[in-house]
Amino acid sequence: MSKQWIFVGLVIAGVAAGATIMTRVGSEVAPVQVGATAPEFRAIDLASGDSVSLHQRYRGKVTLVNIWATWCVPCRVEMPAMEQLYAALAPRGFAVAAVSIDEGPPEDVRKFGAQFKLTFDLLQDRSTRIQQLYQTTGVPESFLLDRNGVIIKRVIGAHDWNSAANRALVERLLAEPGA
Asked: Is the dihedral of CA 142, 146, 151, 155 positive or negative?
């Protein structure tokens, strides 16, 4: 048998093995989409320095998970609207988990929050693992979760979270009971 046919056989065997592995592993990776439960993650709460869990910290709350960075211009554009929505609806159980993927020191993210007078939770994931968990395409990217942690809305890019339509959606979610 020639070396060429041995090589072809090895390539075919490799492709078959890869397809088998991808079929088994790929079925275990659930897509992050509307209707799915938001993936669990841990990040550093910049107010306390503690590592916090999405599922524990925000259990029972309507939560906007926003993945962003201080160097991102569209992120700067949407932050004031997020703050306005949060200020209006936080007393009723609305939360914002703004997860910075900045790899620099936490103080840079805190300064950003102070500059924009942000009062919602500023978290930081210096490992940027949240981008893989949430299968993001860039920043900003946001996920609106109901009280049960189910993704109701996914938005790629800057968004007016304080618009009448978004406020009505969040108010409707706040009116629904959690599990």
From this structure: negative
